[in-house]
Automatic annotation (TrEMBL), chain A:
GO CC field: plasma membrane
Location within or outside the cell: Cell membrane
Coiled coil regions, renumbered to chain: none
Sequence ranges assigned to domain ABC transmembrane type-1 in this UniProt record: 57-262
Major localization listed first in the record, in broad terms: membrane
Membrane topology type: Multi-pass membrane protein
UniProt similarity note: Belongs to the binding-protein-dependent transport system permease family. CysTW subfamily.
Segments passing through the bilayer: 52-80, 92-115, 144-164, 190-214, 241-262
Gene Ontology annotations of biological process type: transmembrane transport
Keywords: Cell membrane, Membrane, Transmembrane, Transmembrane helix, Transport
Name assigned to this protein: Spermidine/putrescine ABC transporter permease
TrEMBL record, chain B:
Domain of life: Bacteria
Keyword list, A-Z: ATP-binding, Nucleotide-binding, Transport
Molecular function terms from GO: ABC-type quaternary ammonium compound transporting activity; ATP binding; ATP hydrolysis activity
ABC transporter domain boundaries: 4-234
PROSITE patterns to which the protein is assigned, alphabetical: ABC_TRANSPORTER_1, ABC_TRANSPORTER_2
Protein name: Carnitine transport ATP-binding protein OpuCA
Signal peptide span: none
SUPFAM superfamilies from the UniProt entry: MOP-like, P-loop containing nucleoside triphosphate hydrolases
A GO CC annotation given for this chain: ATP-binding cassette (ABC) transporter complex
Catalytic activity: a quaternary ammonium(out) + ATP + H2O = a quaternary ammonium(in) + ADP + phosphate + H(+)
Length: 273, 353
């Protein structure tokens, strides 16, 4: 087969993406610069000077960042453990790890509402053993959102890290130990740096996923808004499609900026050779 | 006293013993090879010494101290892996400096020691490269430098040359021997390549099914293998199992089924009761002459197969005592089916267990 012919294989996918993604997004972005027929940056000015909007933006970034860091901290040791197992146990544990991704976000979020609510499982157990004397306010706060998002995205970081860690030669750990490294030092100086590529990809997936998640923050956040729920509110409740487009564009820009800097970081940290 | 001693050591995986009541002593400054087919326990022995495996029973003494429960990172042994196991994210310099930095050596001394050891392995000027940018032989030398720079009390090699091509293997083994002797460092070397082991070792331990069948200097093993297994392993292809043995005038008389042989009494390593003889194909002779020759045993036979080997011919000769393989240089070769006499020089018949 001639090489040129191979490009034809891409055609259906490219056509689909162009029609249903590239063109709509381009139109959405373009529409934000035109209001009532003339070029304007008014929407952006309005967004960035309004303290309420900015606070929502910062809350969103904070929730996404904390979620990402928590996923790394929780996922890294688990991924290392799983990567060391034999194929059978590894398959079972990976399937368990992926489980949260397979349940509907609505069901998952309602479960958290039952656990975290004022009279929920957590509060009633803590009250009954006397650790607290009035219920903790967790549900409908950023903390509840983070808990829900960590639960949702932990699998992503575990899967990507296991993939990278599996390919690290186990002799490297032995080599480090024979040179005098304790198990912990070998882990820190060999496994961690060699896991950076997986860490970067996993972090991008979790951060961008948290940034754009809708159901979980909508159900667990209560009145607390994040960008995605705020966007929905503008479009559906307030019927302000212009503002909704501005918010959508800002989300796209943030996503690209994050990916750009993470990739920069990756090239800097990436093991040579 | 030996520098290193394994005393009645046992190692088992899933209740299957790899080593059982295993003993080994190594003197200071020697290079000792563990040689044997795969599954004989040589790598297990090496990993046990390194500390990657724990003994189920027995003791491991090093320099008079009990090392049985000392963890890997406290042993100060250098280990060179078959896969080299260089850290891919570190430069040659940082790879070699790894062990020194863990020992909190100050950075000026690290630099000086790393650069010096890179000179020793002929890799001066390569310190900024990364493992991916090196050839197989260069990577192996970095691995050796990394193990040497920590001034280890013992150097361990696990089939270090098996991933290199034939020419490089010969150069590297000369190199390893040179470095080992220059630094006078006690070394244990594992390989399944007998030429490699024989060429670099002071002592070779030939292992089979978890025991050492013979531990001797290479020349002794080559000339006087102790057992049939070792004889076969190092190229003896002809064996005769005799029924009776007697000793007269410093010679050994051997009889089986009406045939009488005489073997010279040599400083062999087999037990004094052994009745089995091993002979190399190069040491036997095929002739059509009927006259007796001094110092030779004789057996009638006929040529079964004749193969041209280039420098010589290889014959398989069929006799009453079985088939024998002989390599012999000849202008005009014997034909298949030809009646011949097979000559066994007395002094080339080696008794084995």
């Amino acid at each position: 087969m001639r090489k040129k012919g191979l490009y034809l294989l891409l055609l259906p996918g490219v056509l689909f993406l162009t029609l249903f993604m590239v063109i709509p997004i381009a139109m959405t972005i373009a529409s934000t610069f035109f209001h009532e027929g003339s070029f304007t940056l008014q929407g952006y000015m309005q967004f960035l000077t309004d303290k309420y909007f900015v606070k929502i933006l910062l809350t969103t970034l904070q929730v996404s960042l904390v979620t990402t860091i928590a996923c790394i901290v929780l996922g890294f040791p688990a991924a290392y453990y799983i990567s060391k197992l034999g194929p059978r146990k590894k398959g079972i544990l990976l399937a368990l790890a992926i489980f949260p991704l397979l349940t509907s976000s609505v069901v998952r979020s309602f479960s958290w509402m039952i656990i975290l609510g004022k009279k929920g499982l957590l509060n009633s157990s803590l009250l009954s053993i006397g650790l607290i004397d009035k219920p903790l306010e967790i549900l409908y706060t950023p903390t509840a959102m983070m808990i829900g998002l960590i639960h949702l995205f932990l699998p992503l970081i575990i899967i990507t890290l296991v993939g990278v860690m599996e390919n690290i030669d186990p002799d490297l750990i032995k080599a480090a130990e024979s040179l005098g490294a304790s198990k912990f030092t070998a882990f820190r100086q060999v496994i961690v740096p060699l896991s950076v590529p997986g860490l970067i990809i996993g972090s991008i997936l979790v951060f961008v996923g948290s940034l754009t998640a809708y159901t979980t923050p909508a159900l667990l956040g209560g009145k607390q808004r994040v960008i995605s729920t705020f966007l929905y509110q503008n479009a559906i409740t307030l019927n302000d499609w212009y503002m909704a487009s501005v918010i959508a564009t800002i989300m796209i820009v943030i996503t690209f900026v994050v990916i750009f800097f993470m990739n920069k970081l990756a090239t800097k940290l990436n093991p040579k050779g | 006293m030996a520098l290193l001693a394994l005393e009645n050591v046992s190692v088992a995986y899933d209740n299957q013993y790899i080593l059982q009541n295993f003993n080994l002593n190594i003197e200071k400054g020697q290079l000792i090879s563990l040689l044997g087919p795969s599954g004989c326990g040589k790598t297990t022995t090496l990993r046990l010494i390194a500390g990657f495996l724990e003994a189920k029973d027995g003791r491991f003494l090093f320099d008079g101290k009990d090392y049985t429960r000392v963890p890997v990172n406290k042993r100060n042994f250098g280990f060179v892996f078959q896969s080299y196991a260089l850290f891919p994210h570190l430069s040659v310099f940082d790879n070699v400096a790894f062990g020194l930095r863990l020992r909190k050596v100050n950075e000026a001394e690290v630099k000086q020691r790393v650069l010096r050891i890179l000179e020793v392995v002929s890799l001066g000027g390569f310190e900024k490269r990364f493992p991916k940018e090196l050839s197989g032989g260069q990577r192996q030398r970095v691995a050796i430098a990394r193990a040497l720079v920590i001034s280890p009390d013992l150097l361990l090699f696990d089939e270090p040359l098996s991933n290199l091509d034939a020419n490089l293997r010969i150069n590297m083994r000369v190199e390893i021997r040179r470095i080992q002797q220059e630094l006078g460092i006690t070394t244990v070397y594992v390989s399944h390549d007998q030429e490699e082991c024989f060429s670099i070792s002071d002592q070779v331990a030939i292992m089979n099914k978890g025991i050492i069948e013979q531990l001797d200097d290479p020349a002794t093993i080559f000339k006087y293998p102790k057992t049939e297994f070792i004889a076969r392993f190092i190229g003896f292809t002809n064996f005769i199992d005799f029924a009776e043995r007697s000793e007269t005038n410093g010679e050994i008389g051997l009889r089986v089924g009406g045939h009488e042989f005489v073997a010279a009494k040599n400083p062999g390593t087999a037990s004094p009761m052994s009745k089995k003889c091993a002979m190399r194909p190069d040491d036997l002779l095929v002739t059509t002459e009927e006259a007796d020759q001094a110092g030779m045993n004789r057996l009638h036979g006929s040529v079964k197969v004749s193969t041209f080997l280039g420098r010589s011919y290889q014959y398989v000769v069929e006799t009453e005592l079985g088939d024998f393989t002989v390599n012999q240089e000849m202008e005009t070769p014997y034909r298949s089916g030809q009646k011949v006499n097979l000559l066994f020089p007395k002094d080339k018949m080696v008794l084995v267990d």
